[in-house]
Batch of 2 targets.
Target 1
Amino acid sequence: MRHYRPKNSALPSKQTPLLTQTFLILDSKIQYIDHQVQSYFELYTCSSSSGSDSSNTLKEQSFVQNLDSILGYVETLQTNLKLLQILRAWLKEETVSEIYALLNSNAYSNYSEEKLEKILKQKALYLLRMKANC
């Protein structure tokens, strides 16, 4: 499972330090999820193929049980990854303080995808209207 990894030129050139830091935190969390999935998969799928028929049958049953465990774990990580990607998609000057606060307290994980996106959209629209009125 490989995810988006920005190159230095992928980040906008005129950023505040907070925006830059928030991008780095998000990318780090996304990369950590990738690492967790790979490590977990390797841990539960690596086994030797030598042994007797009964030993191989037990290994196959264990492998099936491990796959169920892997799928459950990956589903949990997938939910977290989607939330992080929503944060990254809405990361702009208008929303940076909100997203930074959500990341530092891990509060983003308490929201559904729809609710998180709605909150960030409302925040961005409110601040854009405030700028337009000034």
Note: The longest helix spans residues 53-89.
Target 2
Amino acid sequence: MSGLVRAEWIRFRKRQSIQIIVLAVPLLAAFMFLAGASSTGPEPPPFDAAAVRADLIAQGFGLGLPPDELGTALDDAVEAQRFPVEQMREQYLLRRSTFAFPQSMVTLLGSGTLVLFALLLLVATSLGDEFGWGTIRTTLLASSLRGRLLLLRLGAVSAISIGLLATLAVLGLVLPVVLTALGTRHPDVPSLNLAGLGVLVLGTLEAGFVIVAFGAMATLLVRSGSLTLVVLLVYVAVEAAILTVLIRFDAFKEQDGLAWVLDAFPVRGISRLVDTAGRVASGLPRFPGEPVPTDLSVAMVPLVALLVWGAAFLAIAYRRFTRMDIVE
């Protein structure tokens, strides 16, 4: 077994395509984080009631009004301009808060879509290239236990997913310091909801498990890594069509009815899980005045469903690999 592990390590280490995919994820995540932080622009100045009042008077506001009414009219006009300015300022601070520690942890972990896409490419590359290059027979000669070889290969990809998530977490610690060194002033932010953060990490790992299992199943069914992405796109289109049909029925629109079934589908479940856990973990609203969710029960259905889907995909991939004819 240790020999197989060493062989897999050497195989992964020598493939430049795999190295590029693994290195691209943290680089892209860091670039997107820094680009997002810089795109927020300078902080809007606080509302200056005296300056606004003076500007209104300079523009001739209230000409012809009696003195006893002019003061009230000016006060009303000033207050009318206060709300949009303060709303814009609050929206800016909310946006900037996502790049301050510890909110930066949630922001970077929210880049888990990059990890999922990378995992699909890793599975398609590591398995599909064996068929494309005709090296699958040589690999199986080194180990006749197909099932163990497949699980070891997928285990290596899953270990990479854990490493990539850990790298994103480290970037969440480091990049705010980089922004501070560049002169960025971070607003005060609330502490993270640890339960929400835990569900976010767990959900992303489960999503990675589903992607790895689905990628293995698709690659082995079509015997090609390049067609794996096509299979994924077809599945996404099919799921979207099914959800479009189901949502037309009243039973699937009611929270007390069958609405939970929609969250059991893989793509929708991953999206719902990451969005819900991320919002609970951050404790930040998306816009001023929005109530911040604290209920993680919505994430329970996707958490269970993803495990079931991942196990089903893995079982199909395992059966396919252990029984398929190898002619390459």
Note: The chain has two domains: 2-40+99-323, 44-97.
